[in-house]
Amino acid sequence: MAQTGNKNGKSGKTSTSGTGRSRSASSSGTKNSSKTGTSKQSTSSRGAGSKQVKQRSSYQENGSGEFGREILLLILLAFCMILFLSNLELAGSVGTHLRKIQFGCFGWMAYLFPFYLFWIGGFLYSNRGRNGRGMVKLAASLAAFLALCGILGLLGGHGLEEGYTLKRCYAEGAEGLNGGWFGGLMYMQLVSWLG
To answer: CB-based contacts of 191: which residues, under 8 Å, 6+ apart?
Structure first.
């Protein structure tokens, strides 16, 4: 009878034939080959797993950035609501100061300013990373808003009297009498250009 051993030098079971291997030796060989195959598979799955981890981390980074932008948009919404309530004199003493600032800058357009401000925030949020057409549209809307302030300045203005300055436009706008500082600026430019 021949004795077979495994690689570690330990003796295995005996076999009756000299040419065949014992069942334990052949099964240990199969186990070794299956372990080798498993380790190759686990190595390849580790590579795929690291790719998944990288994808997850980039998704989490984008997701957290997206979440932060949405939070900023909600904060802007709350601020615009406070601005609107201050225009209606429903926001207390702080609202009174905010109202004077808005009316001083935009005059009667101060009622639309909170809506316009939130629209700008939503527009920038939805058009981030896109081409420059969005910025052109935003600039055109800003020009239209300021032009409306100028038209209201024309409607509520007292003509270009002596001493009619932007400071006076702001003060009258804060009282709700004209188009505010921006309206006065547009008003003065239009009168100087058109005569």
So the answer is: 160
Q: Report the distance separating Cα 111 and Cα 140, nearest Å.
A: 20
Average of pLDDT values for 87-107? 91
- Give the bridge partners for 11, in sequence order: 5
Tokens 């790719």 locate to 51
Span 99-105, average pLDDT: 93
Q: CB neighbours of 100 closer than 8 A, spacing ≥ 6?
A: 174
Helix (H) / strand (E) containing 12: strand 11-15
* Cβ atoms 160, 187 nearer than 8 A: no
Cβ(81)–Cβ(113) under 8 Å? no
Closest CA to 160 of 151, 148, 171, 168: 168
What predicted TM-score, i.e. pTM, was given to this entire model? 0.61
Measured distance CA(175)–CA(168) in Å, rounded: 11
| Vertex 101: Cα angle to 98 and 107 (nearest 5) | 120
- pLDDT tens readout for residues 146-190: 989 888 887 876 556 666 788 888 888 888 778 888 888 887 887
Percent of the chain with pLDDT over 90: 28
Residues contacting 129, CB < 8 A, separation 6+:
none
